[in-house]
Protein backbone atom coordinates (compact mmCIF):
# COMPACT_ATOMS: atom_id res chain seq x y z
CA UNK A 1 0.00 0.00 0.00
CA UNK A 2 1.05 3.64 -0.38
CA UNK A 3 1.91 5.90 2.51
CA UNK A 4 2.45 9.61 1.98
CA UNK A 5 4.46 11.56 4.56
CA UNK A 6 4.02 15.33 4.22
CA UNK A 7 6.06 16.61 7.18
CA UNK A 8 9.54 15.39 8.10
CA UNK A 9 9.53 12.43 10.49
CA UNK A 10 12.45 10.37 11.81
CA UNK A 11 13.90 7.74 9.46
CA UNK A 12 13.05 5.07 12.03
CA UNK A 13 9.37 5.68 11.27
CA UNK A 14 9.88 5.48 7.51
CA UNK A 15 11.73 2.18 8.06
CA UNK A 16 8.79 0.76 10.05
CA UNK A 17 6.52 1.50 7.08
CA UNK A 18 8.91 0.12 4.47
CA UNK A 19 9.60 -3.00 6.52
CA UNK A 20 5.86 -3.70 6.42
CA UNK A 21 6.07 -3.64 2.63
CA UNK A 22 4.52 -0.23 2.00
CA UNK A 23 5.60 2.20 -0.68
CA UNK A 24 6.58 5.39 1.15
CA UNK A 25 6.50 8.75 -0.57
CA UNK A 26 7.77 11.85 1.22
CA UNK A 27 6.61 15.24 -0.01
CA UNK A 28 7.36 18.03 2.39
CA UNK A 29 5.82 21.48 2.05
CA UNK A 30 3.20 20.26 -0.43
CA UNK A 31 0.30 22.66 -0.78
CA UNK A 32 -2.87 23.12 -2.80
CA UNK A 33 -3.26 20.96 -5.89
CA UNK A 34 0.13 19.29 -5.36
CA UNK A 35 -1.00 18.06 -1.93
CA UNK A 36 -4.35 16.83 -3.29
CA UNK A 37 -2.60 15.05 -6.13
CA UNK A 38 -0.17 13.31 -3.78
CA UNK A 39 -2.97 12.33 -1.36
CA UNK A 40 -5.02 10.89 -4.21
CA UNK A 41 -2.62 7.92 -4.38
CA UNK A 42 -2.20 7.33 -0.66
CA UNK A 43 -3.78 4.74 1.59
CA UNK A 44 -2.08 6.25 4.62
CA UNK A 45 -1.06 9.84 5.29
CA UNK A 46 1.42 10.92 7.99
CA UNK A 47 1.62 14.55 9.06
CA UNK A 48 2.99 16.76 11.82
CA UNK A 49 1.71 20.26 12.52
CA UNK A 50 2.85 21.54 9.14
CA UNK A 51 0.07 20.02 7.02
CA UNK A 52 -3.56 21.13 7.17
CA UNK A 53 -5.70 18.05 6.65
CA UNK A 54 -8.92 19.69 5.50
CA UNK A 55 -12.14 18.23 4.13
CA UNK A 56 -10.79 18.97 0.65
CA UNK A 57 -7.71 16.85 1.33
CA UNK A 58 -9.90 14.02 2.62
CA UNK A 59 -12.14 14.35 -0.45
CA UNK A 60 -9.11 13.77 -2.66
CA UNK A 61 -9.10 10.02 -2.08
CA UNK A 62 -11.82 7.47 -1.25
CA UNK A 63 -9.15 4.88 -0.46
CA UNK A 64 -7.48 6.81 2.34
CA UNK A 65 -7.63 4.65 5.48
CA UNK A 66 -5.72 6.60 8.10
CA UNK A 67 -4.20 9.97 8.88
CA UNK A 68 -1.39 9.48 11.40
CA UNK A 69 -0.22 12.51 13.37
CA UNK A 70 3.42 12.06 14.39
CA UNK A 71 2.91 14.09 17.54
CA UNK A 72 0.12 15.22 19.85
CA UNK A 73 -1.83 18.21 18.55
CA UNK A 74 -4.49 17.43 15.95
CA UNK A 75 -5.91 20.93 15.53
CA UNK A 76 -4.59 20.86 11.94
CA UNK A 77 -6.76 17.84 11.10
CA UNK A 78 -10.50 18.07 10.42
CA UNK A 79 -11.42 15.05 12.55
CA UNK A 80 -15.18 15.38 11.95
CA UNK A 81 -14.63 15.32 8.20
CA UNK A 82 -12.27 12.35 8.59
CA UNK A 83 -14.95 10.48 10.55
CA UNK A 84 -17.55 11.25 7.88
CA UNK A 85 -15.14 9.89 5.28
CA UNK A 86 -14.44 6.78 7.36
CA UNK A 87 -10.80 7.77 7.78
CA UNK A 88 -9.09 6.95 11.07
CA UNK A 89 -7.18 9.76 12.76
CA UNK A 90 -4.50 8.62 15.20
CA UNK A 91 -1.81 10.52 17.06
CA UNK A 92 1.24 9.72 19.19
CA UNK A 93 0.24 11.15 22.57
CA UNK A 94 3.20 9.99 24.65
CA UNK A 95 6.35 10.21 22.56
CA UNK A 96 7.16 13.91 22.82
CA UNK A 97 5.75 14.78 26.25
CA UNK A 98 9.15 14.84 27.95
CA UNK A 99 10.65 16.91 25.13
CA UNK A 100 7.80 19.44 25.35
CA UNK A 101 8.06 19.63 29.13
CA UNK A 102 11.84 20.13 29.01
CA UNK A 103 11.43 22.85 26.40
CA UNK A 104 8.88 24.56 28.65
CA UNK A 105 11.30 24.50 31.57
CA UNK A 106 14.06 25.81 29.30
CA UNK A 107 11.83 28.63 28.04
CA UNK A 108 10.84 29.50 31.61
CA UNK A 109 14.46 29.87 32.64
CA UNK A 110 15.32 31.65 29.40
CA UNK A 111 12.58 34.23 30.04
CA UNK A 112 13.41 34.62 33.73
CA UNK A 113 17.11 35.21 33.06
CA UNK A 114 16.87 36.91 29.62
CA UNK A 115 19.27 34.33 28.24
CA UNK A 116 18.51 34.81 24.49
CA UNK A 117 18.63 38.60 24.78
CA UNK A 118 21.96 38.59 26.64
CA UNK A 119 23.34 36.00 24.24
CA UNK A 120 22.58 38.15 21.19
CA UNK A 121 24.11 41.24 22.82
CA UNK A 122 27.28 39.38 23.69
CA UNK A 123 27.53 37.89 20.20
CA UNK A 124 27.27 41.47 18.97
CA UNK A 125 30.24 42.37 21.14
CA UNK A 126 28.33 44.02 24.03
CA UNK A 127 29.03 43.07 27.66
CA UNK A 128 25.57 44.08 28.94
CA UNK A 129 26.02 42.57 32.41
CA UNK A 130 24.41 45.41 34.31
CA UNK A 131 21.23 45.41 32.21
CA UNK A 132 19.95 41.98 33.10
CA UNK A 133 18.63 41.34 36.57
CA UNK A 134 16.64 38.13 36.40
CA UNK A 135 14.02 36.40 38.53
CA UNK A 136 14.54 33.13 40.40
CA UNK A 137 12.00 30.33 40.02
CA UNK A 138 12.48 28.87 43.50
CA UNK A 139 9.74 30.15 45.78
CA UNK A 140 7.67 31.58 42.92
CA UNK A 141 4.25 30.36 41.81
CA UNK A 142 3.75 28.51 38.55
CA UNK A 143 0.24 28.68 37.09
CA UNK A 144 -0.48 25.75 34.76
CA UNK A 145 -3.41 26.03 32.36
CA UNK A 146 -4.12 22.47 31.22
CA UNK A 147 -2.82 19.82 33.60
CA UNK A 148 -2.63 16.97 31.08
CA UNK A 149 0.42 14.94 30.10
CA UNK A 150 2.75 17.85 29.34
CA UNK A 151 1.31 20.14 32.03
CA UNK A 152 1.81 17.46 34.67
CA UNK A 153 5.39 16.80 33.60
CA UNK A 154 6.15 20.53 33.71
CA UNK A 155 4.49 20.80 37.14
CA UNK A 156 6.59 17.91 38.47
CA UNK A 157 9.84 19.34 37.15
CA UNK A 158 9.24 22.89 38.38
CA UNK A 159 7.84 21.69 41.72
CA UNK A 160 11.16 19.93 42.26
CA UNK A 161 12.89 23.28 41.65
CA UNK A 162 10.96 24.85 44.51
CA UNK A 163 8.00 26.42 42.72
CA UNK A 164 4.46 26.38 44.16
CA UNK A 165 2.06 24.96 41.59
CA UNK A 166 -1.48 26.16 40.98
CA UNK A 167 -3.42 24.80 38.04
CA UNK A 168 -6.59 25.44 36.08
CA UNK A 169 -8.03 22.40 34.34
CA UNK A 170 -11.78 21.80 34.56
CA UNK A 171 -11.43 18.21 33.36
CA UNK A 172 -9.14 16.65 35.93
CA UNK A 173 -9.92 15.61 39.49
CA UNK A 174 -8.63 17.30 42.63
CA UNK A 175 -7.13 13.96 43.74
CA UNK A 176 -5.02 13.81 40.59
CA UNK A 177 -3.82 17.38 41.09
CA UNK A 178 -3.15 16.68 44.80
CA UNK A 179 -0.97 13.73 43.90
CA UNK A 180 1.14 16.09 41.79
CA UNK A 181 1.38 18.59 44.59
CA UNK A 182 -0.66 21.07 42.51
CA UNK A 183 -3.57 23.13 43.82
CA UNK A 184 -6.53 23.16 41.44
CA UNK A 185 -7.95 26.67 41.29
CA UNK A 186 -10.37 28.72 39.19
CA UNK A 187 -9.07 30.33 36.01
CA UNK A 188 -8.85 33.90 37.33
CA UNK A 189 -7.30 32.70 40.56
CA UNK A 190 -4.66 30.84 38.56
CA UNK A 191 -3.82 34.01 36.61
CA UNK A 192 -3.76 36.22 39.69
CA UNK A 193 -1.52 33.92 41.70
CA UNK A 194 0.94 32.96 38.96
CA UNK A 195 4.34 34.56 38.65
CA UNK A 196 4.88 32.36 35.63
CA UNK A 197 1.90 31.14 33.61
CA UNK A 198 2.40 28.14 31.35
CA UNK A 199 -0.16 26.98 28.76
CA UNK A 200 -0.72 23.28 28.03
CA UNK A 201 -4.24 22.87 26.66
CA UNK A 202 -5.12 21.76 23.16
CA UNK A 203 -6.42 24.41 20.77
CA UNK A 204 -10.20 23.96 20.78
CA UNK A 205 -13.15 26.30 20.27
CA UNK A 206 -13.20 26.60 24.07
CA UNK A 207 -9.52 27.47 24.50
CA UNK A 208 -9.06 29.60 21.38
CA UNK A 209 -8.35 33.16 22.51
CA UNK A 210 -9.08 32.29 26.16
CA UNK A 211 -6.22 34.57 27.32
CA UNK A 212 -6.72 38.16 26.22
CA UNK A 213 -6.17 41.62 27.61
CA UNK A 214 -8.29 41.21 30.76
CA UNK A 215 -6.67 37.89 31.65
CA UNK A 216 -3.15 39.22 31.07
CA UNK A 217 -3.91 42.15 33.38
CA UNK A 218 -4.52 39.62 36.18
CA UNK A 219 -1.00 38.31 35.69
CA UNK A 220 0.44 41.73 36.45
CA UNK A 221 4.24 41.59 36.61
CA UNK A 222 4.34 37.92 35.57
CA UNK A 223 5.70 35.94 32.66
CA UNK A 224 3.74 33.92 30.09
CA UNK A 225 5.17 30.72 28.63
CA UNK A 226 3.41 28.98 25.75
CA UNK A 227 4.72 25.68 24.44
CA UNK A 228 1.11 24.43 24.02
CA UNK A 229 -0.66 25.88 21.01
CA UNK A 230 -0.78 29.18 19.21
CA UNK A 231 -4.15 30.90 19.17
CA UNK A 232 -4.90 30.25 22.86
CA UNK A 233 -3.32 33.58 23.85
CA UNK A 234 -4.45 36.61 21.84
CA UNK A 235 -1.16 37.66 20.31
CA UNK A 236 -1.87 41.39 19.86
CA UNK A 237 -2.92 41.67 23.49
CA UNK A 238 0.19 39.79 24.60
CA UNK A 239 2.53 41.98 22.61
CA UNK A 240 0.81 45.11 23.97
CA UNK A 241 1.00 43.89 27.59
CA UNK A 242 4.72 43.23 27.29
CA UNK A 243 5.19 46.57 25.60
CA UNK A 244 3.35 48.53 28.34
CA UNK A 245 5.17 46.64 31.12
CA UNK A 246 2.11 44.78 32.50
CA UNK A 247 4.02 41.59 31.83
CA UNK A 248 7.67 41.02 32.64
CA UNK A 249 8.07 38.92 29.54
CA UNK A 250 6.84 36.04 27.42
CA UNK A 251 8.42 32.90 25.98
CA UNK A 252 6.61 31.41 23.02
CA UNK A 253 7.17 28.29 20.97
CA UNK A 254 3.83 28.21 19.18
CA UNK A 255 1.87 30.81 17.24
CA UNK A 256 -1.56 31.40 15.75
CA UNK A 257 0.03 31.40 12.32
CA UNK A 258 3.07 29.25 11.61
CA UNK A 259 5.65 30.00 10.36
CA UNK A 260 5.36 33.20 12.41
CA UNK A 261 5.04 36.10 9.95
CA UNK A 262 7.96 38.54 10.02
CA UNK A 263 5.59 41.45 10.71
CA UNK A 264 4.14 39.86 13.88
CA UNK A 265 4.04 42.32 16.82
CA UNK A 266 5.50 39.50 18.92
CA UNK A 267 8.82 40.02 17.18
CA UNK A 268 8.98 43.70 18.05
CA UNK A 269 9.77 43.49 21.74
CA UNK A 270 12.98 42.14 23.30
CA UNK A 271 11.12 40.66 26.25
CA UNK A 272 9.17 38.28 24.04
CA UNK A 273 11.46 35.36 23.32
CA UNK A 274 10.53 32.92 20.60
CA UNK A 275 11.43 29.51 19.20
CA UNK A 276 10.05 28.08 15.95
CA UNK A 277 7.80 25.32 17.37
CA UNK A 278 10.71 23.29 18.71
CA UNK A 279 8.96 21.70 21.71
CA UNK A 280 8.96 18.21 20.21
CA UNK A 281 12.21 18.55 18.34
CA UNK A 282 14.53 16.19 20.12
CA UNK A 283 16.02 13.08 18.55
CA UNK A 284 14.37 10.79 21.07
CA UNK A 285 10.95 12.40 20.77
CA UNK A 286 10.99 12.35 16.98
CA UNK A 287 12.01 8.71 16.93
CA UNK A 288 9.26 7.86 19.42
CA UNK A 289 6.46 9.64 17.59
CA UNK A 290 7.58 8.51 14.14
CA UNK A 291 7.73 4.83 15.04
CA UNK A 292 4.51 4.90 17.06
CA UNK A 293 2.66 6.62 14.21
CA UNK A 294 4.10 4.31 11.57
CA UNK A 295 3.07 1.27 13.63
CA UNK A 296 -0.46 2.61 13.81
CA UNK A 297 -0.56 3.24 10.09
CA UNK A 298 0.64 -0.32 9.51
CA UNK A 299 -2.07 -1.62 11.84
CA UNK A 300 -4.79 0.35 10.09
CA UNK A 301 -3.65 -0.81 6.66
CA UNK A 302 -3.84 -4.42 7.84
CA UNK A 303 -7.27 -3.81 9.37
CA UNK A 304 -5.94 -4.26 12.88
CA UNK A 305 -6.81 -2.07 15.83
CA UNK A 306 -5.15 1.31 15.97
CA UNK A 307 -3.86 2.02 19.46
CA UNK A 308 -4.41 5.78 19.59
CA UNK A 309 -7.27 6.22 17.15
CA UNK A 310 -9.09 9.42 18.06
CA UNK A 311 -12.24 8.87 16.05
CA UNK A 312 -12.60 5.09 15.96
CA UNK A 313 -13.21 2.50 18.62
CA UNK A 314 -9.90 0.93 19.60
CA UNK A 315 -9.16 -2.49 21.07
CA UNK A 316 -6.30 -3.41 23.28
CA UNK A 317 -3.70 -5.18 21.12
CA UNK A 318 -3.63 -8.23 23.40
CA UNK A 319 -7.43 -8.62 23.24
CA UNK A 320 -7.64 -8.26 19.45
CA UNK A 321 -7.05 -11.95 18.57
CA UNK A 322 -9.99 -12.94 20.83
CA UNK A 323 -12.30 -10.22 19.54
CA UNK A 324 -11.36 -10.31 15.83
CA UNK A 325 -13.57 -13.26 14.78
CA UNK A 326 -16.58 -11.62 16.42
CA UNK A 327 -15.99 -8.47 14.42
CA UNK A 328 -16.68 -10.45 11.26
CA UNK A 329 -19.71 -12.28 12.60
CA UNK A 330 -21.23 -9.02 13.93
CA UNK A 331 -20.77 -7.37 10.55
CA UNK A 332 -22.32 -10.36 8.79
CA UNK A 333 -25.30 -10.48 11.16
CA UNK A 334 -25.80 -6.75 10.55
CA UNK A 335 -25.67 -7.21 6.76
CA UNK A 336 -28.13 -10.07 6.75
CA UNK A 337 -30.57 -8.34 9.09
CA UNK A 338 -30.49 -5.09 7.11
CA UNK A 339 -31.18 -6.89 3.83
CA UNK A 340 -34.08 -8.87 5.28
CA UNK A 341 -35.89 -5.84 6.68
CA UNK A 342 -38.39 -4.11 4.44
CA UNK A 343 -38.31 -0.33 4.66
CA UNK A 344 -36.17 2.18 6.46
CA UNK A 345 -33.97 1.10 9.36
CA UNK A 346 -34.95 3.09 12.44
CA UNK A 347 -33.48 1.02 15.25
CA UNK A 348 -30.47 -1.24 15.66
CA UNK A 349 -30.01 -3.34 18.75
CA UNK A 350 -26.82 -5.31 19.26
CA UNK A 351 -26.90 -7.82 22.11
CA UNK A 352 -24.12 -9.98 23.41
CA UNK A 353 -24.38 -13.20 25.41
CA UNK A 354 -21.70 -15.31 27.07
CA UNK A 355 -17.92 -15.02 27.10
CA UNK A 356 -17.73 -12.20 24.55
CA UNK A 357 -19.25 -9.91 27.19
CA UNK A 358 -15.91 -10.04 29.03
CA UNK A 359 -14.25 -8.28 26.10
CA UNK A 360 -14.21 -4.66 24.98
CA UNK A 361 -17.01 -4.82 22.41
CA UNK A 362 -17.11 -1.20 21.20
CA UNK A 363 -15.41 -2.12 17.93
CA UNK A 364 -17.69 -5.16 17.51
CA UNK A 365 -20.81 -2.99 17.80
CA UNK A 366 -19.32 -0.49 15.34
CA UNK A 367 -18.73 -3.43 12.96
CA UNK A 368 -22.34 -4.59 13.35
CA UNK A 369 -23.39 -1.05 12.35
CA UNK A 370 -20.99 -1.18 9.42
CA UNK A 371 -22.75 -4.36 8.32
CA UNK A 372 -26.16 -2.75 8.71
CA UNK A 373 -25.28 0.34 6.68
CA UNK A 374 -22.96 -1.22 4.10
CA UNK A 375 -25.77 -2.30 1.77
CA UNK A 376 -26.99 1.32 1.80
CA UNK A 377 -23.89 3.52 1.93
CA UNK A 378 -21.11 3.92 -0.61
CA UNK A 379 -18.31 4.09 1.94
CA UNK A 380 -18.95 2.84 5.42
CA UNK A 381 -16.60 1.36 7.95
CA UNK A 382 -16.32 0.96 11.70
CA UNK A 383 -14.99 4.55 11.92
CA UNK A 384 -17.99 6.30 10.40
CA UNK A 385 -20.77 3.75 11.02
CA UNK A 386 -21.69 5.12 14.50
CA UNK A 387 -21.70 8.63 13.02
CA UNK A 388 -23.87 7.50 10.10
CA UNK A 389 -26.33 6.02 12.61
CA UNK A 390 -26.44 9.31 14.48
CA UNK A 391 -26.78 11.39 11.31
CA UNK A 392 -29.67 9.23 10.08
CA UNK A 393 -31.39 9.34 13.45
CA UNK A 394 -31.09 5.57 13.89
CA UNK A 395 -31.52 4.61 17.52
CA UNK A 396 -28.65 2.27 18.47
CA UNK A 397 -28.69 0.20 21.65
CA UNK A 398 -26.21 -2.30 22.98
CA UNK A 399 -26.78 -4.80 25.77
CA UNK A 400 -24.89 -7.66 27.39
CA UNK A 401 -25.94 -10.79 29.28
CA UNK A 402 -23.07 -12.71 30.73
CA UNK A 403 -25.10 -15.90 31.00
CA UNK A 404 -25.27 -17.77 27.70
CA UNK A 405 -28.23 -20.00 26.84
CA UNK A 406 -27.03 -22.23 23.98
CA UNK A 407 -23.67 -20.94 22.81
CA UNK A 408 -20.40 -19.95 24.43
CA UNK A 409 -20.85 -16.51 22.90
CA UNK A 410 -23.68 -15.11 20.84
CA UNK A 411 -24.12 -11.81 19.02
CA UNK A 412 -27.55 -10.77 17.95
CA UNK A 413 -28.26 -7.85 15.62
CA UNK A 414 -31.86 -6.67 15.45
CA UNK A 415 -32.93 -4.00 12.99
CA UNK A 416 -36.38 -2.52 13.02
CA UNK A 417 -38.86 0.15 12.08
CA UNK A 418 -42.51 0.90 12.85
CA UNK A 419 -43.70 -2.05 10.77
CA UNK A 420 -41.27 -4.84 11.39
CA UNK A 421 -38.23 -6.12 13.24
CA UNK A 422 -35.66 -8.70 12.10
CA UNK A 423 -33.08 -10.41 14.30
CA UNK A 424 -30.03 -12.31 13.11
CA UNK A 425 -27.85 -14.19 15.60
CA UNK A 426 -24.28 -15.25 14.94
CA UNK A 427 -21.70 -17.26 16.80
CA UNK A 428 -18.40 -19.04 16.30
CA UNK A 429 -18.22 -22.81 16.24
CA UNK A 430 -14.96 -24.20 17.59
CA UNK A 431 -13.78 -20.69 18.27
CA UNK A 432 -13.25 -19.61 14.66
CA UNK A 433 -15.98 -21.02 12.41
CA UNK A 434 -18.60 -18.29 11.91
CA UNK A 435 -22.24 -19.38 11.76
CA UNK A 436 -25.60 -17.72 11.58
CA UNK A 437 -27.64 -19.64 14.12
CA UNK A 438 -30.94 -17.80 14.17
CA UNK A 439 -32.80 -15.76 11.58
CA UNK A 440 -35.99 -13.99 12.54
CA UNK A 441 -36.45 -16.43 15.42
CA UNK A 442 -35.83 -19.60 13.37
CA UNK A 443 -32.98 -21.78 14.59
CA UNK A 444 -30.65 -22.38 11.62
CA UNK A 445 -27.05 -23.36 11.07
CA UNK A 446 -25.99 -21.34 8.04
CA UNK A 447 -22.50 -20.67 6.79
CA UNK A 448 -22.32 -16.93 6.06
CA UNK A 449 -20.62 -16.70 2.73
CA UNK A 450 -20.88 -14.70 -0.49
CA UNK A 451 -24.41 -14.88 -1.87
CA UNK A 452 -27.39 -16.20 0.02
CA UNK A 453 -31.11 -16.54 -0.36
CA UNK A 454 -33.54 -16.61 2.53
CA UNK A 455 -37.00 -17.97 1.76
CA UNK A 456 -40.07 -18.13 3.97
CA UNK A 457 -42.75 -20.55 2.98
CA UNK A 458 -45.52 -22.78 4.28
CA UNK A 459 -44.18 -26.08 5.54
CA UNK A 460 -45.67 -28.58 3.11
CA UNK A 461 -44.36 -31.18 0.67
CA UNK A 462 -42.87 -30.04 -2.61
CA UNK A 463 -41.93 -26.45 -1.67
CA UNK A 464 -38.20 -27.05 -1.37
CA UNK A 465 -38.37 -28.94 -4.67
CA UNK A 466 -40.13 -25.96 -6.27
CA UNK A 467 -37.46 -23.55 -5.01
CA UNK A 468 -34.69 -25.83 -6.28
CA UNK A 469 -36.22 -26.17 -9.73
CA UNK A 470 -36.93 -22.43 -10.14
CA UNK A 471 -33.36 -21.62 -9.13
CA UNK A 472 -32.04 -24.23 -11.57
CA UNK A 473 -34.23 -22.88 -14.36
CA UNK A 474 -32.68 -19.42 -13.85
CA UNK A 475 -29.15 -20.81 -13.79
CA UNK A 476 -28.60 -20.40 -10.03
CA UNK A 477 -26.62 -23.22 -8.50
CA UNK A 478 -27.43 -24.03 -4.86
CA UNK A 479 -24.21 -24.72 -2.96
CA UNK A 480 -25.79 -25.46 0.41
CA UNK A 481 -28.97 -24.99 2.43
CA UNK A 482 -30.39 -25.08 5.91
CA UNK A 483 -34.08 -25.46 6.57
CA UNK A 484 -35.88 -24.59 9.83
CA UNK A 485 -39.53 -24.59 10.75
CA UNK A 486 -41.69 -23.45 13.61
CA UNK A 487 -43.71 -26.65 13.83
CA UNK A 488 -44.80 -29.37 11.45
CA UNK A 489 -47.19 -27.93 8.87
CA UNK A 490 -46.69 -24.30 9.90
CA UNK A 491 -44.12 -21.92 8.38
CA UNK A 492 -40.52 -22.66 7.44
CA UNK A 493 -37.45 -20.55 6.75
CA UNK A 494 -34.61 -21.76 4.57
CA UNK A 495 -31.16 -20.24 4.08
CA UNK A 496 -29.46 -21.15 0.80
CA UNK A 497 -25.85 -20.50 -0.21
CA UNK A 498 -25.89 -19.82 -3.94
CA UNK A 499 -23.13 -19.40 -6.49
CA UNK A 500 -24.58 -16.47 -8.43
CA UNK A 501 -27.01 -13.62 -8.16
CA UNK A 502 -30.67 -14.58 -8.07
CA UNK A 503 -32.43 -12.72 -10.89
CA UNK A 504 -35.64 -10.81 -10.14
CA UNK A 505 -37.46 -13.11 -12.56
CA UNK A 506 -36.67 -16.09 -10.31
CA UNK A 507 -37.92 -14.23 -7.25
CA UNK A 508 -41.09 -13.19 -9.11
CA UNK A 509 -41.74 -16.75 -10.22
CA UNK A 510 -41.37 -18.03 -6.67
CA UNK A 511 -43.53 -15.26 -5.23
CA UNK A 512 -46.34 -16.22 -7.61
CA UNK A 513 -46.67 -19.56 -5.81
CA UNK A 514 -49.11 -19.28 -2.90
CA UNK A 515 -46.88 -21.41 -0.68
CA UNK A 516 -44.04 -18.88 -0.79
CA UNK A 517 -44.27 -16.11 1.83
CA UNK A 518 -41.10 -14.23 0.89
CA UNK A 519 -37.79 -14.51 -0.96
CA UNK A 520 -34.79 -12.33 -0.10
CA UNK A 521 -31.50 -12.36 -1.95
CA UNK A 522 -28.60 -11.34 0.26
CA UNK A 523 -25.05 -10.53 -0.65
CA UNK A 524 -22.30 -10.45 1.92
CA UNK A 525 -19.48 -9.18 -0.25
CA UNK A 526 -21.18 -6.09 -1.60
CA UNK A 527 -21.26 -7.39 -5.19
CA UNK A 528 -24.43 -8.57 -6.77
N1 LIG B 1 5.30 22.94 21.25
C1 LIG B 1 5.34 21.66 20.97
O1 LIG B 1 6.15 21.21 20.18
C2 LIG B 1 4.40 20.72 21.65
C3 LIG B 1 4.82 19.43 21.99
C4 LIG B 1 3.91 18.58 22.60
C5 LIG B 1 2.63 18.99 22.86
N2 LIG B 1 2.24 20.23 22.49
C6 LIG B 1 0.88 20.70 22.73
O2 LIG B 1 0.71 20.82 24.13
C7 LIG B 1 -0.67 20.69 24.43
C8 LIG B 1 -0.84 19.73 25.59
O3 LIG B 1 -0.45 18.44 25.23
P1 LIG B 1 -0.76 17.22 26.21
O4 LIG B 1 -0.12 16.04 25.65
O5 LIG B 1 -0.46 17.60 27.61
O6 LIG B 1 -2.33 17.10 26.05
P2 LIG B 1 -3.32 16.41 27.07
O7 LIG B 1 -4.54 16.12 26.30
O8 LIG B 1 -2.64 15.32 27.80
O9 LIG B 1 -3.64 17.56 28.12
C9 LIG B 1 -4.40 18.68 27.81
C10 LIG B 1 -5.06 19.12 29.09
O10 LIG B 1 -5.77 20.33 28.82
C11 LIG B 1 -6.97 20.29 29.56
N3 LIG B 1 -7.93 21.22 29.02
C12 LIG B 1 -8.74 21.07 27.94
N4 LIG B 1 -9.51 22.16 27.78
C13 LIG B 1 -9.18 23.02 28.78
C14 LIG B 1 -9.63 24.30 29.13
N5 LIG B 1 -10.59 24.93 28.45
N6 LIG B 1 -9.06 24.90 30.20
C15 LIG B 1 -8.10 24.27 30.91
N7 LIG B 1 -7.65 23.04 30.63
C16 LIG B 1 -8.18 22.43 29.57
C17 LIG B 1 -7.40 18.84 29.47
O11 LIG B 1 -8.30 18.53 30.52
C18 LIG B 1 -6.09 18.12 29.62
O12 LIG B 1 -5.81 17.79 30.94
C19 LIG B 1 -1.35 20.26 23.15
O13 LIG B 1 -1.91 21.39 22.54
C20 LIG B 1 -0.20 19.76 22.31
O14 LIG B 1 -0.48 19.84 20.96
C21 LIG B 1 3.10 21.12 21.91
O1 LIG C 1 1.53 18.71 19.19
C1 LIG C 1 2.68 18.31 19.07
O2 LIG C 1 3.01 17.13 19.12
C2 LIG C 1 3.75 19.32 18.94
O3 LIG C 1 3.22 20.57 18.75
C3 LIG C 1 4.78 18.99 17.95
O4 LIG C 1 4.45 19.42 16.68
P1 LIG C 1 5.42 19.09 15.45
O5 LIG C 1 5.39 17.62 15.28
O6 LIG C 1 4.86 19.82 14.30
O7 LIG C 1 6.77 19.57 15.85
From TrEMBL:
Recorded catalytic activity of this chain's protein: (2R)-3-phosphoglycerate + NAD(+) = 3-phosphooxypyruvate + NADH + H(+)
GO molecular function: NAD binding; phosphoglycerate dehydrogenase activity
Domain called D-3-phosphoglycerate dehydrogenase ASB: residue spans: 323-439
Keyword terms of this UniProt record: Amino-acid biosynthesis, NAD, Oxidoreductase, Serine biosynthesis
Every D-isomer specific 2-hydroxyacid dehydrogenase NAD-binding domain range: 105-279
Pathway(s) the chain acts in: Amino-acid biosynthesis; L-serine biosynthesis; L-serine from 3-phospho-D-glycerate: step 1/3
Protein name per the record: D-3-phosphoglycerate dehydrogenase
Species of provenance: Natrialba asiatica (strain ATCC 700177 / DSM 12278 / JCM 9576 / FERM P-10747 / NBRC 102637 / 172P1)
Taxonomic path: Archaea, Methanobacteriati, Methanobacteriota, Stenosarchaea group, Halobacteria
Amino acid sequence: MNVLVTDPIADAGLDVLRDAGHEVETGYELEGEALLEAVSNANGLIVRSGTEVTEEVLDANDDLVIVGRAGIGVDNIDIDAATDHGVIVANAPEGNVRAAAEHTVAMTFAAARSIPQAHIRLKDGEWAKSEYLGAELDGKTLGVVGLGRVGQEVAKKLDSLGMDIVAFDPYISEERADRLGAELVEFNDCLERADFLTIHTPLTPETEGMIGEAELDLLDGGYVINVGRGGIIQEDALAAKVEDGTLAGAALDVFAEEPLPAESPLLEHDDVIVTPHLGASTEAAQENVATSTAEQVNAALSEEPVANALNAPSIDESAFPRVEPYIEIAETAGKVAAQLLDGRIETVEVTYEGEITDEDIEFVTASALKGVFEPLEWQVNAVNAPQIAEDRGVDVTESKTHQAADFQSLISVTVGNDEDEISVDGTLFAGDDPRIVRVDGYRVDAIPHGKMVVTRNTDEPGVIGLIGSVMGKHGVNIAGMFNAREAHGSEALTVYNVDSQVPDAAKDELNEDGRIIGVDYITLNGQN
